[in-house]
From TrEMBL:
It is found in: Endomembrane system. The gene is Lman2l. This is Lectin, mannose-binding 2-like. Residues 48-157 form the L-type lectin-like domain. PANTHER family: VESICULAR MANNOSE-BINDING LECTIN, VIP36-LIKE PROTEIN. The lineage of its organism: Eukaryota, Metazoa, Chordata, Craniata, Vertebrata. GO terms for cellular component: endomembrane system; membrane. PROSITE patterns: L_LECTIN_LIKE. Pfam families: Lectin_leg-like. It comes from Mus musculus (Mouse). Keywords: Lectin, Membrane, Signal, Transmembrane, Transmembrane helix. Residues 1-33 form the signal peptide.
Length: 157
């Protein structure tokens, strides 16, 4: 008689499945309710996002060293996992990092974080630091030709 009142394996499985599905539904609703919600963008505001082909972030593994890299190194530039060294701590050295992919974006912003360190920092023996946005890339001389001949402005791109 005790065996007749005992639920069958099917009934036990259904109860367990219902409990699991109920827990899944509760978890889904909790996750759904805990999100930041829809992002409202007002007129005049831009949504920020990074374009992978124009961005660099740590660790810098493979930057400039493989054929699949989106960046080219020139001169004395050297890539480490936590930083990119453009020049060693000596005068008259040049280094550059160039993006291989042209930028066709209408509106964009450049954010650069840099640190100057070494023996030259004490007396500022460096030869300078420049960021170029040019139509032609990778000039072997290091300085775009229109600037090396006395013109003081970048051409319109």
């Amino acid at each position: 008689m005790a065996a007749a009142s005992r639920p069958s394996w099917w009934q036990r499985w259904r109860r367990r499945a219902w409990a699991r599905d109920g827990a899944k539904l509760l978890l889904f609703l909790l996750l759904l309710g805990s999100g930041p919600g829809p992002r409202h963008v007002r007129a005049g505001q831009a949504v920020e996002y990074l374009k992978r082909e124009h961005s660099l972030s740590k660790p810098y593994q493979g930057v400039g060293t493989s054929s699949s890299s989106l960046w080219n190194l020139m001169g004395n530039a050297m890539v480490m996992t936590q930083y990119i060294r453009l020049t060693p701590d000596m005068q008259s050295k040049q280094g550059a990092l160039w993006n291989r992919v042209p930028c066709f974006l209408k509106d964009w912003e450049l954010q650069v974080h840099f640190k100057i360190h070494g023996q030259g920092k004490k007396n500022l023996h460096g030869d300078g630091l420049a960021i170029w946005y040019t139509k032609d890339r990778m000039q072997p001389a290091g300085i775009p030709l229109h600037l090396s001949h006395g013109e003081q402005r970048l051409p319109q791109l």
